Amino acid sequence: MHNVAHEVKGDKLVITVDIGQQSIQAAPPSASGKTYLVGTTGGSVSVPSKHAFSLSFAINVMCKRAQ
User: Fold this and answer.
1) 37, 39, 43: which is closest to 63 by C-alpha?
2) Pair type for strands 55-57 and 4-9
3) Per-residue b/e over 13-31, b at no fewer than 16 CB within 10 Å?
């Protein structure tokens, strides 16, 4: 994971991504090079659950940035 944090609060999944200027400037380029990855899970991430089923999520936060 890069610049993504998550936690379960009660029955809510709370995902936090820093979208401040420093995070955007430090974002690495995507594989195609067309955008920059401000935050990514790099695929599916498991979420702890008190239910019988399993939960997961995936997120990519991207931006286009002038060179």
Assistant:
1) 37
2) unpaired
3) eeeebeeeeebeeebeeee
| pLDDT value of residue 52 | 80
pTM: 0.83
Predicted local distance difference test score (pLDDT) of residue 66: 63
Which pairs from 40-43 meet CB under 8 Å and 24+ separation?
A: 40/1, 40/2, 40/3, 40/4, 41/1, 41/4, 42/1, 42/2
- CB 39, CB 3: distance < 8 Å: yes
**Distance, CA of 64 to CA of 45 (rounded, Å):** 25
